[in-house]
Design a protein that fits this description.
One of its GO terms (biological process) is regulation of transcription by RNA polymerase II. InterPro entries: Beta-prop_IFT140_1st, Ebi-like, LisH, WD40/YVTN_repeat-like_dom_sf, WD40_repeat_dom_sf, WD40_rpt. GO terms for molecular function: transcription corepressor activity. It is found in: Nucleus. This protein is α+β, with helices and mostly antiparallel strands. The protein folds into two domains: about 90 residues, Mitochondrial Import Receptor Subunit Tom20, Chain A; about 350 residues, YVTN repeat-like/Quinoprotein amine dehydrogenase (Methylamine Dehydrogenase, Chain H, 7 Propeller), CATH 2.130.10. It has eight helices and 34 strands. Strands 1-31-29-28-27 form a five-stranded mixed beta sheet. A five-stranded mixed beta sheet has the order 23-24-25-26-30, with no helix packed on it. Strand 16 and strand 17 form a beta hairpin. Helix 4 crosses helix 6. The protein is globular and about 95 Å long.
């Protein structure tokens, strides 16, 4: 007598459908061949078959205990027979009768824990990631100040170029001299959007709300309050004007080869542009009935021609260039979407939402692979560290590192109750910077943390995240608005809500 894995999958699928767990049944249906079995055998398999088989299996296991190896029936304990047989009792009987064979020699895996070591492994305290010099935290010093800007972006290919977006409708591109101890601005290019009436207020400030360099670093895209987009060369020359949005731009994203652009505004309008000609190719206007709430503040490419955008009620819409309707939607989040990041290495999408959860989505599946809880307030950043680990920050003052393969929290840092307004991971994925409400910036040593996590097989509790350096703001009542890393991962810029932008160095 035998049963195949596909037959077992079908029985589980039937059980899920019969018990009303339609979402779980759909997930299993996507990953197996249950529909083929349904066509062939569905009418011949009665309701409740899986539960019936399991109950018979429990009874058979208990019956085995009453028969000796030579076929003789053991004395019957009437009191035992009057008790209900349970699954736990059956598993204990099976373990006694057929003890687990420990892998040895060439059959043993490096990651296998020997049976005699298991108890010690469970009680082993979490290792420290801070190392011997845990009390030493480097104090980072200011290298240069720039005029006040709400956001800043380093060029992804040249360390000496940085773009700054201000409240005066202008984008500044600064070319720096960074060789000496004292940094200097060698050239400053001004890229001016025309002053215009703001779409949200009766003013003509028309602040720069978004900046994004192209992957090659040759072009800079800027968006302002009235919805206008402008494309500039790296030396400040106007290349194109993209004018179709009618409300403040809140997100911009180039695709991997720099041929197309995604832009999103405050009214939930997303537009796909041809970066070379400035022509709008697709227009998505996602409206939720009786609601003026922003559905999300992020968009993301998941390939050269596929992308995801926010949808109603926390849904993630999967779209493709050339098709005016979404290919499908990912259901799981329930509120405004705040973070997307696609990992091309493992083909997985990371998302965060104001429902205080972080989810991981696998390519080809409509159900999330992971759903991480823990944050008690809005999530302000979420990034892939590698193909397994994810790092997040939140206004609740915590930084968390999760493992998607282990489905668990691996590391945790609390910032003394100070809200974290933004977070940014370095291009080399070895450092993570957070900007706080009090104006300070803390930089975590992710490289050291990952080495510790790789050295242990399991954790009893999350370990602390080692701190590499700290920058203390000397002003009052001023919070960090944005952080941007330099291409070499050794410098970063800090934009403040009410003060000049600061550049600091880790060197």
């Amino acid at each position: 007598m035998s049963i195949t894995s596909e037959e077992l999958n079908y029985l589980i699928w039937r059980y899920l459908q019969e018990s009303g767990k339609e979402v779980s049944a759909l997930a299993l249906q996507e990953e197996s061949r249950v529909l083929e079995f349904e066509e062939k055998f569905g009418e011949h398999i009665p309701v409740g078959t899986l539960v019936n088989f399991i109950q018979k299996g429990i009874l058979y296991t208990e019956s085995e205990l009453m028969v000796r190896y030579d076929g003789e029936v053991t004395p019957v304990d009437k009191e035992h027979c009057l008790k209900d047989f349970t699954l736990v009792q059956a598993l204990e009987v099976d373990r006694e009768r057929y003890p687990e064979i420990a892998p040895e020699g060439r059959f043993a895996l490096e990651s296998e824990v020997k049976p005699e070591d298991k108890d010690d492994k469970r009680t082993e305290p979490a290792p420290s990631a801070t190392g011997e010099n845990s009390n030493f935290i480097k104090t980072l010093q200011e290298k240069l100040k720039f005029p006040m800007s709400s956001n800043s972006q380093w060029n992804p290919q040249e360390n000496s170029l940085i773009a700054l977006g201000g409240q005066d409708s202008a984008v500044k591109i600064a070319k720096l001299a960074m060789d000496s101890q004292d940094w200097k601005i060698l050239e400053l290019f001004s890229c001016q959007h025309p002053p215009a009436l703001s779409a949200t207020a009766d003013t003509t400030t028309n602040s720069v709300t978004c900046l994004q360099w192209s992957p090659s670093g040759q072009s800079l895209l800027s968006g302002v309050e009235n919805g206008e987009l402008r494309l500039w060369s790296k030396d400040g020359k106007l290349q194109n004007i993209l004018n179709l949005h009618r409300s403040p731009i809140i997100t911009l994203k180039w695709n991997q080869d720099g041929t197309h652009i995604l832009s999103g505004d405050l009214d939930n309008v997303v537009i796909v542009w041809n970066a070379g000609t400035g022509t709008p190719l697709q227009h998505f206007e996602i409206k939720e009935p009786d609601s003026v709430e922003t559905l999300g503040v992020v968009v993301e490419w998941i390939g050269l021609d596929k992308f995801v955008i926010p949808g109603p009620q926390g849904a993630i819409l999967v779209c493709e260039m050339g098709k005016n309707r979404p290919l499908g939607k990912l259901i799981g989040h329930t509120k405004t979407l705040t973070e997307f990041e696609y990992n091309a290495s493992n083909n997985m999408l990371l998302s965060a939402s104001d429902d205080l959860t972080v989810r991981v989505w696998r390519s080809g599946s409509i159900n999330s692979l992971n759903c991480f809880y823990g944050h008690s307030q809005s999530i302000t950043s979420a990034f892939w560290i590698n193909d397994d680990n994810i790092i997040t920050s939140s206004i609740d003052g915590s930084v968390r590192v999760y493992s998607h393969s282990l489905h668990t929290l691996m590391a945790l840092s609390m910032v003394d109750g100070v809200p974290i307004f933004c977070g940014s991971i370095s291009p080399d994925k070895k450092k993570f910077a957070i900007g706080k409400q009090d104006g300070g910036v803390t930089i975590y040593d992710i490289e050291k943390l990952i080495k510790v996590l790789d050295a242990v097989r399991s954790l009893q509790e999350p370990i602390p995240i080692p701190i590499m350096g700290d920058y203390q703001y000397d002003g009052d009542h001023n919070s960090v608005a944005a952080i941007s890393w330099c291409y070499d991962s050794n410098q970063l810029s800090i934009s403040y809500s009410l003060d000049d932008t600061t550049a600091i160095s880790l060197g």
